[in-house]
Amino acid sequence: MTAAPADLLIDRPSVADGAALWRIAKESGSLDLNSSYSYLLWCRDFAGTSAVVRAEGGEPVGFVTGYVRPADPRTLLVWQVAVDTAYRGRGLAAALLDGLTARLAAEGPITAVETTITPGNTASERLFTSYAARHGAQVGREVLFGAGLFPDGPHDPEVLYRIGPLSHPHPHPHPHLHPHSHSR
Known about the structure:
By secondary structure, the chain is of the alpha+beta class. The chain has helices spanning 18-28, 36-45, 92-107, 122-134; strands at residues 8-11, 51-54, 60-69, 72-83, 112-117, 138-145, 158-164, 177-179. β4 (72-83), α3 (92-107) and β5 form a beta-alpha-beta unit.
């Protein structure tokens, strides 16, 4: 629908991006939508472990949110990854994951990535298994939260994908995206 911009920038999110992240998550059709307030908080408190990809006008068109696990500071837990419908199919989700983990690896010893995926979410399964292959890592899988643990009605189990140990041989494998390091 929209032609690819000449330059897309991977950047840290700012509070002003919270509304766009909420909208992208809402329109994804696959993510659990959190409150808009939570996306604002995430962009404030976890900007250092999250990333957005910006179109030429500066508006986020994709994001990855994550945090370093307090009990395991070498592990990044990826909470959500989403790309605006008009920008899908261009490798932006993979570029966001690669860019974020490269940034974190440069700042400290991130050796593993974790995420949870519900059974049947083949797009996420492909995204994270291809990420593991690019980084020479193994993928372990186990049910983290069974369906019976969710108090708000039927929910598929959440399967933990643990990817590691990571090697970081590709500082920036996506030539059409440029990392942008300043906080906005």
